[in-house]
Design brief:
This protein is of the alpha/beta class. It folds into 4 domains: 6-146, Alpha-D-Glucose-1,6-Bisphosphate, subunit A, domain 3 (Alpha-D-Glucose-1,6-Bisphosphate, Chain A, domain 3); 152-251, Alpha-D-Glucose-1,6-Bisphosphate, subunit A, domain 3 (Alpha-D-Glucose-1,6-Bisphosphate, Chain A, domain 3), CATH 3.40.120.10; 256-336 and 352-358, Alpha-D-Glucose-1,6-Bisphosphate, Chain A, domain 3; 366-445, TATA-Binding Protein (2-Layer Sandwich). Helices cover 38% and strands 23% of the residues. It is built from 15 helices and 21 strands. The chain has helices at 21-34, 49-62, 75-84, 117-129, 149-158, 162-168, 185-191, 220-228, 256-270, 284-292, 304-314, 337-351, 355-358, 377-387, 426-445; strands at residues 6-7, 10-14, 38-43, 66-72, 89-93, 102-108, 143-145, 171-175, 195-199, 233-237, 244-247, 253-254, 275-279, 296-300, 318-320, 326-328, 332-335, 366-373, 397-401, 404-410, 416-423. Strand 13, helix 10 (284-292) and strand 14 form a beta-alpha-beta unit. The model has no long low-confidence stretch (mean pLDDT 96). The structure holds magnesium ion.
């Protein structure tokens, strides 16, 4: 299998083992070779982040570019800073929701988007060739500190009806998961006149309170606190706060798919139509509400950089992933946890109903997932093309049935194939999943 240093989210690995300061230094030189000028560098709250950040900055300076050190900041805040400020590019040191021993380095282009797969490919070629720009001793770049969080907070607040939200004096519990959002989310809530309760809101790279991924099983504490303080909602972020998940006023977790559908519907209604971009692995509930509201759904490959790229190309009104990563193009074509929170408050202020009531009408499906061994990606894809001529082959094969759908998708990075099945009732979803597993095994075995 082809191995590449850059995965779906830049370079990621165990800090000081896979992702060493030597590699970070060369990644700093790589970005400065590709986009010389001013390069903003931010980081999450992980223990290894300052070490890696300083190595990246040294690489940038060695290549003759100027580094702007913005310190601990959510990924979308760094992206927004690059978009609206005068940096030519950005680097974020983060492993997002991964366990504490991990870290990562991701490149951001001047419009604030994550590097596309093609741009990452070019970066990897430069990195491996070691053909970096190197400045003479008297032309080595400088470094200065700047503040990205404040610009981001103001950017987010300016994109929502803050007067409407302020009137409601919402009670909100924010679980920042000891990540980078400790510097932004409580401030956004303050600007919107919310009564804010924070938990796990001290930056701590040991992630002492909960695992970083804001999935339902990790936000039990948030659910409890929402109930005990009688909050209107609870919000939880991952370590770099490009994702947000929510708990309603009853302390119930709102599934990420339902939240994606709710936002997509709101944007289509607000724009009197428009295109919504989601990966092929997305629940049908999103398509249902988008089509119902007069919009159009566009399916892409899995991975946020490709969603962002397609959104920009077709001028989509909204997009996102069913994992709490929502994209608001009027702010930033990137997943954005702060915007997700602010927009949800706007919807609640607008509808004047509790969150549990607002999401009640979104259709519910059962989605089941499985993995099987797959050592021959090409064989599986060719077999699927023969078996299911009418399927959507954007990424693997998505086969639509009258009462559900099935996605069989060989991984690009691991020797496995992922199988997703979704239907209105659980029994049918199980049936489709088993059918998919059997089909994939049969193709691989013949
Ligand atoms: Mg993240």
């Amino acid at each position: 299998m082809e191995r590449s240093l850059f995965g779906t989210n830049g370079v990621r690995g165990i800090a000081n083992f896979d992702l060493t300061p030597e590699l970070a230094l060369n990644l700093g030189k790589t970005i400065a070779t590709m986009r010389s000028g001013k390069i903003a560098v931010g980081m999450d709250a992980r223990i290894s982040s300052p070490m890696l950040k300083h190595a990246v900055i040294a690489g940038i300076m060695s290549s003759g570019s100027t580094a702007i050190d913005v310190g601990i900041t959510p990924t979308p805040a760094l992206q927004y800073y690059v978009k609206v400020g005068d940096a030519n590019a950005g680097v974020i040191v983060t492993a997002s929701h991964n366990p504490k021993e991990y870290n990562g380095i991701k490149f951001i282009s001047s419009d604030g988007r994550e590097f596309s797969r093609e741009e990452d490919g070019e970066a990897e070629r430069i990195l491996l060739s070691k053909k970096f720009l190197r400045a003479e001793w008297n032309e080595v770049g400088g470094v200065y500190a700047d503040e990205a969080n404040r610009i981001y907070i103001e950017g987010v607040v300016s994109k929502v009806d803050s007067d409407l939200i302020s009137e409601r004096k919402f009670r909100v519990v924010a679980d920042c998961g000891n990540g980078a959002s400790v510097f932004t989310t409580p401030e956004i809530l303050k600007e919107l006149d919310c009564i804010t309760y924070t938990i796990n809101s001290v930056p701590d790279g040991r992630f002492p309170a909960r695992q970083s991924e804001p999935v339902e099983e990790n936000v039990w504490e948030l659910k409890e606190v929402v109930k005990s303080v009688k909050a209107d909602i609870g919000v939880a972020h991952d370590g770099d706060a490009d994702r947000a998940t929510f708990v309603d006023e009853r302390g119930n977790f709102v599934s990420e798919d339902v939240m994606l559908a709710l936002m997509a519907k709101y944007y289509v209604e607000m724009n009197n139509g428009g295109k919504v971009v989601v990966p092929v692995s997305t629940s049908k509930c999103v398509e249902d509400v988008v089509v119902d509201a007069g919009g159009e759904i566009v399916y892409t490959e899995v991975g946020s950089p490709v969603i962002a790229k397609v959104m920009k190309e077709i001028g989509a009104v909204f997009g996102g992933e069913g994992n709490g990563g929502l994209i608001f193009p009027e702010h930033l074509i990137a997943r954005d946890g702060g915007m997700s929170l602010a927009k949800l408050l706007e919807i609640m202020a607008d509808e004047r109903k509790p969150l549990s009531e607002i999401v009640k009408d979104i259709p519910r499906y059962h989605i089941l997932k499985a993995k099987i061994k797959c050592h021959n990606r090409k064989k599986l894809l060719e077999g699927l093309r023969e078996e299911f001529e009418d399927a959507n082959f954007t990424d693997g094969a998505r086969i639509d049935f009258e009462d559900g759908w099935l996605l069989i998708r060989p991984s690009g990075t691991e020797p496995i194939a992922r199988i997703f099945a979704e239907a209105r009732d659980e029994r049918r979803a199980k049936e489709l999943l088993e059918f998919g597993i059997e089909k994939a095994r049969k193709i691989l075995g013949r």
